[in-house]
Please model this.
Amino acid sequence: MHKGSCLCGAIRFELLSDPGAVSNCHCRMCQKQHGAAFATYASIPRADLKYLCGEDQLTAYNSSGSIIRKFCRVCGSHVEWSGSTQFPDWVSIPLTLLDTAFKPGKIRDIHVQSRAGWLPD
Ligand SMILES: [Zn+2]
Ligand SMILES: [Zn+2]
Model:
């Protein structure tokens, strides 16, 4: 079972199944929210994301359309990306939050049209 936490540790969770559909998202919204060239997400059924503590510290931001991005209001770590009308019962979480070792299979690069110019080829 995988466990994860935010930067300050206020929010802790565990995953009841292996996350899948791993992608590096290079969209401008992920770049700005994460303060990084891209964000690496994995998807999991919402029912398999169990908060151990700190769920009440999550703040929600509606970034576009129906998409909700949730982050820790103490440290700013991004925790959830959800609200897809295509996959309403799924949530994506940044792989960087995991404190247990996880080796994804294939990682897809998406929204590469806004790939940061400073990234090495
Ligand atoms: Zn935090
Ligand atoms: Zn993105």
In short: The pocket of zinc ion (ligand 2) is lined by residues 25, 27, 29-30, 39, 111 (CB under 6 Å). The longest strand covers residues 39-45. The chain has a mean pLDDT of 96.
